[in-house]
Amino acid sequence: MKKINSYKSKMLPVCLLIILVSLISCKKLIEIPANPPSAVPRSQVFADSLTTLSAVAGVYSLTPGGAGLPYQDGNFTFVTSLSGHEVSSNSGYGDLTQFFNYTTLTPVNSEINSIWTAHYTEIYQVNDILANIKDNANLSASFIQQITGEMEFVRAFCYFNMVNLFGGVPLVTTTDYKTNARLPRSTAAAVYTQILTDLNDAVKKLPVTYPSAGHMRPNLYTAMALLARVNLYLGQWQAAYNEADSVITQGGFNLLTDLNSVFLDGSNEAIWQVPILNLYQGSMEANNFLPYSTTSTPSFPITDSLLNQFEVGDLRKAAWLGFNVVGGQNVYYPAKYKDHSPTTPATDYMLLRFAEMYLIRAEAAAQLNNLGQAITDINTIRTRAGLAGTTADPTSQTAVLDAVRKERRTEMFTEFGCRWFDLNRTSTDSKYSANGQAPAVLSGWQPFNALYPIPQTQKSLNNTLTQNPGYH
Comparing C-alpha atoms, which of 180, 186, 183 is closest to residue 168? Predict the structure, then answer.
C-alpha cells in the first residue's frame, strides 16, 4: 500500500476536482447539472491514463465528509450492527435507537437517507468513468478493459448492499441525471441480475494480480470473492462454493495469526482494503465505537447476546473487543478498528477479507450436505481464534449450519451488516434451528423489518418510488 499512498499528494488535487464534478448535489437520487461551473472539462479528465486514474482514485477514496466509497462516515456499520443486535446505543440520538427497536423505524430517519444518497453518489462516479473511458481513443484497449472491470466490481458492491438494505432500488447505469432522477424501483431480482452481470464481466476483465501496490484496486479474486457472497445470498450453493474455493486455493491470501494485524495496511488477509485518506483522524468505526476515555460508557456497547457467543480462550474477544469498567461492570465495545487518529502502520478499511471465504465455503458445503468439508472450514477459523474444533454433530445438517452461523457471528461481527443480513436471508430456511432465527433472537422483528424503509426524502423528490410494506 505504500506505493499508492505516495501518490496521494499528486492525485489529491485532481481527485477533488473529479469529486466536484460528480457531487454538486447528493440530496436527490441523481441531480447533476450537465456542466457544473466547477467542472473540469471531460476531455482533460480522461485525456490519458494518468488523469483517468485520478478519477478512479476518487472512487476508492475514503475521505470523511467527502466523496468516494459510501462507507466513510461509519453509518452503514453502526446502523446494521444495531439492527442485528450486535450493539446497543447509548448515544441518546433518536434516529439511531430506531434501528435497534424495529417498531419505531420510520422513512424520515436521517441515517437511512444518508446511506441511500451516499451509494448513489458513488454509483454516479462509477457510471461517469465507464461512460468516458468507453471507446476513448486516448486510452489503450488493455487499460480500458482493466478500469471497466474495476468499476463494474464497485458498482456491483454498491448495489449488493442496497438490495439487501432496501430490496428493489432504481437501477442507475448511466449519467443521464434527468432520467435517473425519475427512475422507479427495479425488482430485487433485476438488481441481482445487474450485480451478476457486472461481476461476471469483471471476472473476465480483471487480472490475477493487483494492478497497483496494496489491495485497493480489485483483481480477479476480489471480484470472485464478491461473487461467492452474492451466490451465497441467492442460495446458489454450488456457485458460492466454487467461487470461494477458487479464492481460497488460488488467490494467494492467508489468515494472519496476529489478530491485531488483520485490519492494518498490508494485511494479506485483505481481499479488498482501501486507505483512509484523513490526516487528522482514523476510521469512523473507531471514532463511533471507541470511548474517548477509559472510564466513560461506550456509545455502542456490545450486547450480552453477542458477548455470550465468545467461548473461553477465544482470541477474537481479546483482540477485537475492548472494555471499560463502568459502575463496577465490564462494558464491552467493538475494537476491530483502533485508530481514533492515524496510526503507524496505518489502519486501512477492510471491505472484503479472506476469513469470510472459509465461512462461505463452509455454509455452501453444509447446504450441499458436504458436512465434512463444512466442519473442516469451520475449524480453520476456530483454530486461528485459538479454539478447539467444533462440537457440532457431524451427521446433522442443522447442527453444522448452526455452527457456521455461530462462527460467522463471532468472526464477522460489526462488519458491513453481516449478522443483520445473515438473520434476514435465513429467516425462512427451516434447515436452521428455530431458536436461532430472527424472530427468536431479535425482539420485535417482523418479516417486513428485513428491509429498511425507502427514505421519505427520496420519495418526495421522486414520486415513482414506492414504499416498502410495513412502513408509512
Answer: 186
- Asked if residue 456 is part of any domain, the answer here is no
Q: Which helix (H) or strand (E) holds 316?
A: helix 315-320
In this structure, what DSSP letter does residue 103 have? G
pTM above 0.70, yes or no: yes
Task: Say yes or no: 328 and 365 in one domain.
Answer: no
Amino acid 66: pLDDT: 53
How far is it, in rounded angstroms, from Cα 79 to Cα 223? 26
Angle of helix 110-133 relative to helix 8-22, nearest 10 degrees?
A: 110
Q: How many domains does the chain have?
A: 3
In a shared domain, residues 210 and 307: no
pLDDT of 240 reads 98
Last residue of a domain, one of 270, 293, 316: 270
Collapsed DSSP state (helix, strand, coil) of residue 354? helix
| 420 vs 84: CA distance, rounded Å | 4
Q: Rg of the chain's alpha carbons, rounded to an integer?
A: 22
Is 142 in the same domain as 202?
yes
Query: Which run of H or E residues covers position 272?
Result: strand 270-274
Dihedral over Cα of 92, 97, 103, 108: its sign: positive
> Rounded to an integer, what distance in angstroms lies between the CA atom of residue 58 and that of residue 459?
28
Contact status, residue 15 vs residue 54, Cβ threshold 8 Å: yes
**Contact by Cβ (8 Å): 351, 272:** yes
Handedness of CA 105, 111, 114, 119 (dihedral sign): negative
- Distance between alpha carbon 213 and the CA centroid of its chain, in Å? 22
Tens digits of per-residue pLDDT, 402-423?
999 999 999 999 998 999 999 9
pLDDT digits (tens, 9 = 90+) for 16-74: 343 333 433 333 443 333 433 344 566 688 999 999 999 999 899 876 555 567 777 78
Question: Which portions of the chain are predicted below pLDDT 50?
Answer: 1-39
Average pLDDT, the chain: 89
C-alpha span between 119 and 454 (Å, rounded): 13
- On whether residue 6 sits in a domain, the answer given is yes
Q: In terms of residue numbers, what domain contains 437?
A: 353-442
H/E stretch holding 350 reads strand 349-353
